[in-house]
Specification:
By secondary structure, the protein is an alpha+beta fold. The protein is built from two helices and three strands, in the order ββαβα. It has a three-stranded mixed sheet, covered by helices on one side. The longest helix is centred in the C-terminal third of the chain and has 28 residues.
Amino acid sequence: PEDTGAIQHQRVPCSLGYHFLQREGKVDIAYFIRSCDIVRHFADDVYMTARLLQWVCERLDSTPGLLVMHISSLHMFEGDVPIIEMKHKNMDIQADISAAASVDLLNKMGF
């Protein structure tokens, strides 16, 4: 990865570890991560951690609880700004559509 400072092309893992807690029939997971590129890796890290939690819960016959991530360096690179801006713009459009649909549904229900 670009952010590791690795000089001889060695792999420096970003994931530090997982901590599982089982309480009241639910299993929580805390994921400790050194560094995460929000454009390239964040969505995959969240998805894979959620799937790991599901896998553990299946084996424990339990229910998934909270997923908490502690990221020491959540970052993006300057060249990725247009990507983030486009995603943000698309989120605004989707939020507007969702808000309009919600208001329409509430009106139909008589609220």
